[in-house]
Amino acid sequence: MSSTVVRSLCLAALFALIGGPVVAAEGAPGAIVPGSKAAGLDHCVEPTPYMRRHHMELILHQRDKTVHQGIRTKKYSLANCIDCHVGHDAGGKAVPVNAEGQFCDSCHDFVGQSLDCFECHATTPTPASAGK
Amino acid sequence: MSSNNESIDRKRRSFLGKAGAAVATTVVAPGVVLHAAAPRSPEQPVTDAVRWGMLIDANKCASGCSDCVQACEEENGLNLVQMPEGADPEEWARQRPRWIRQIQLQDNLTGQVTTLPMMCQHCEEPPCADVCPTGASFRRADGIVMVDRHICIGCRYCMMACPYKARSFIHEEVEEKPTHTPRGKGCVESCNFCVHRLDNGRTTTACQDACRHQAIVFGDLKDKNSPVAKALESVKSRQIRADLQLNTGVRYSGV
Question: Is B35 contained in some domain?
């Protein structure tokens, strides 16, 4: 099977999984965690289809700009992703974005794609008082 | 290889430095010169119009005080790195990550003891960057020597190359890490002048803020009016291992 076919099958599966609010409303596993800031917004920092395909490129590009050029704008930063997409448990405590069923995990787990960001990066927002 | 290749032509470097300075300075009117060190907006990359640096007065640094070390560890999440289960406590004491070390110097003739904090000296010619096989160790345009942990492979050449023993290796996975200081198993790290603060518009480091003896002055070495530049102009200071000609960004007085 050619890699293009595999890729389109993967994408089709991904779209089926994170079919947006309509699918989520029907009870299928949705990527957007209910109660997260993202759940109350129309779309992410770019239109949803673009984010599905290119979120990794945006984060990769921003990471180099941050580390090497000191550009810490929020729009494409991983910290901003987490801030917006993190869910909370019944007690109001933030649940790691890579925990089972949470935003990052739901697709990455489905396609078996490892999530390396969180070997080093925080998985929940740090309270605003620290490091600002 | 001929021996000529091994010597560095420092005149060339100083020429380039002067040429750069000429670009960064604008003459507004006769006698009025505008220095291009205005605060950077968040979208702009860092430039070499600024060089961050530090002056540490060892005479003011008090023996037994570790305020700067504590502040550094809290600011940069080093206090959250736990000793791995079953590890040898002595080994851990030697190998745990530390960005500032407290050094005591003793004059054997008089017995006089000097205390000083030792951290990454933010060299202009960093040996760590020279030996790094991946380019993970690098010097940012504003003079901060850092590790890009995305491309660090954990070889630790830089730890061996650093004349100041300034770098630490993260041996085990770290449970808890603040958003602004990511940290993971298998990478090297060291003092970065609290770069997250500087990038967010602040102009002090945690160690400087914590020092109640005012032994640490931090700022832009290229801004003649900055406290650090003024202090360096008026106080006799030195680089540690000046013989290596690294042009360190951290200078010491009273040693």
Answer: no
Q: Which residues are B29's β-sheet partners? A: B32
Read off the pLDDT of residues B88-125 as tens digits, 9 standing for 90 and up.
999 999 999 999 999 999 999 999 999 999 999 999 99
Residues B205 and B197: their CA atoms lie apart, in Å, by: 7
Tens-place pLDDT, residues B205-233: 999 999 999 999 999 999 999 999 999 99
B177 touches A122 (CB < 8 A) = yes
Chain B closest-CA separation from residue A124 CA (Å): 8
Judge whether B10 lies within some domain.
Answer: no
Q: Containing domain of residue B112, as a range?
A: 40-253
Q: Where residue B50 sits, what CATH number does that domain have?
A: 3.30.70.20
Residue B7 lies in a domain: no
Is residue B90, in this structure, part of any structural domain at all? yes
Overall domain count for chain B: 1
CB-CB neighbors (< 8 A) of A97 in chain B: none
Q: Looking at chain A, which residue has its C-alpha nearest residue B75?
A: A131
Q: For chain B, which ranges sit under pLDDT 50?
A: 1-3, 20-24, 26, 33-34, 36
SS3 state at B22: helix
The predicted complex's ipTM stands at 0.81
**Least CB-CB distance to A69: which of B45, B177, B187?**
B45
Q: Check residue A14 and give its pLDDT.
A: 47
**B210: nearest Cα among B29, B18, B71, B35:** B71
* CA-based max dimension of chain B: 70
The verdict on a CB contact (< 8 Å) between A132 and B181 is no
Using the Cβ of B75 and the Cβ atoms of chain A, whether some distance falls under 8 Å is answered with yes
Which residues are CB-contacts of A8 (< 8 A; sequence separation ≥ 6)?
none
pLDDT at residue A4 is higher than 80: no
How do the domains of chain A map onto residue ranges? 3-119
